[in-house]
Amino acid sequence: MEVVVDAYGRDERCMGWYCYLDAQLTPFTARCTVEQEHSPLAVGDEVEVLGMASDKVCSDEMRVKIRWEKRRGLAVPLAQLKVIKGDDATRQAVEDWVHWVRRGYSF
Fold first, then answer.
1. 77, part of any domain
2. What is the domain extent for residue 91?
3. How many domains does the chain have?
4. Contacts for 36-42 with beta carbons within 8 Å, 24 or more apart?
5. Mean pLDDT in residue range 43-49
6. Tens-digit pLDDT profile for residues 15-24
7. Does residue 107 fall inside a structural domain?
8. Among residues 49, 37, 91, which one has the least CA distance to residue 74?
9. pLDDT digits (tens, 9 = 90+) for 34-43
10. In a domain, 28, yes or no
């Protein structure tokens, strides 16, 4: 909740999360833990996360860019990923976002 403590509307909550995650995330390896209809990832897939997707594609949920089929920059929902190799700040930030989403919070 510290990420959105001073956010008074949907756009401010979205930007609060985006700025927090963008500042904390460094490239990491992740495993897909849940399938989502609008993502090509299946449970168990391992991906290389390159960083945050642009803020334009994060207006309804936080997305990260992954390397996918030799291309860079496919945006997938961060909430479907778990860090398997990354630094502590990255791991904590991803866990914070996933916890927030699973509690049913939204922008």
1. yes
2. 2-102
3. 1
4. 36/77, 36/79, 36/80, 38/77, 39/76, 39/77, 39/80, 40/68, 40/74, 40/76, 41/76, 41/80
5. 97
6. 889 999 999 9
7. no
8. 49
9. 999 999 999 9
10. yes
